[in-house]
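Hi L.,

As promised, KIB1-4 beta-propeller domain-containing protein:
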Amino acid sequence: CNTIDPFDAKKKRMQFTSIAKLQGVVVALSLQGALAVIQETDSCLTIKAISSSRAVPSVSSRFFKEYFVQLNGEIFLVFLINQKTTSVVDKVEVSRLCFPDLKWIKVEKIQGKTLFVDQCRNRVSSIETGYRGNCIYFTQGSENKWWIYDLGSACISPA
């Protein structure tokens, strides 16, 4: 990509960490939290729009990891946030993409659905039945142990 990331202090080119398709266009998140709308025309990819605000957690942290998740035709951004140490997730934030405005809206429920975020294998999925609704299941570091973040209570507990 030859486009400069608007949020990179050193004015480096955009590098994308996450990508998804929505309403016939591709949206991608840069290393610096810029959201880009990418369109393919005649086998050539072109950035058509870039968000005016960054996608970053609302709290300070030592480390965080973000995941794009598609659910019911919408894109969600899940932040697993490490505030006290780099090895323990202390907080989880979930936002929904408002398209075509390219704004992230913080959400407190995901329509009773369940999302899985696996840090070890860097994959995500959504399941509609059999697990606690309105929850994010995730792993931490190299452990194969699952944790649950309940959006309603904002609590993290072992699965």
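The chain has two domains: 1-55, 63-158.

Thanks again for sending the construct details.

K.
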